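PROTEIN SPECIFICATION:
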Amino acid sequence: MQVDVKVEAREAVGKGVARTLRRQGKIPGILYGQGECVALTVDPAEIRKVLHSDSGSNSLLNLSIARGGKDMKRTAMLKDYQVDPITGALLHADLFEVAMDKPVRVRVPVAVTGGIPVGVAEGGLLQHNMRELHIECLPGQIPTHITVDPSNLKVNQGIHVKEVPLPPGIMIMDDPNMMVVSIAAPITDAKLEALLSTAPAGEGAAEPEVIGKGKEEEGAEVAAAGAKPGAKTPAAAPAGAAKEDKKEGKDTKGEKKK
């Protein structure tokens, strides 16, 4: 699909110029040409017109560039654009010039057509595995979408990339063995219940934390300290005993002085 777009060339560049253009209701843009890059002043309505077309960003833009009192004609495609994350307003547009006799690579959406698949009528589920395909073709041959028909698919069957019918001159760059659409087998209630009741792998009953030491561990520590096995270990002195001993020693010294 081709869209006519009018833009203006500009000499001034920079953030200040971009802010001024946006205040005027315009946005800055760049045309990446075959040998020259041109700074542009773009009406955001022109870019919205492209984005809302059937081909979207894959549309061919018939550019009319006003420059020095003359109109230059170029054929381009929308390479990228920036949008304000809060207001949704367009902020910038990047275009790249194309040659009609040189192939380009683009991504094209996949459209599912046909009636209800046989596998779905049997209780299966239609899975749209790939929403778009990466293709290579001449600019004038870019399709709005690529059609697949899964109506004859049964359960556990699908259509691979290599099985997708293509118009002449179009080549798919994706892995030929990737699945585009498929019919998955329905899950039974018993299997669903088993999956929901099964504990996740690696989870088990948590072991209680060991707070005290066993007799074997205490014996090992005593042996390591040089004590004889079976010997009684002295009980630990109660807290504050050392302070009491010191007090008693002070009292004894006082009695001697007396």
Notes: The chain is about 20% helix and 30% strand. Residues 62 and 117 are 41 Å apart (CA to CA).
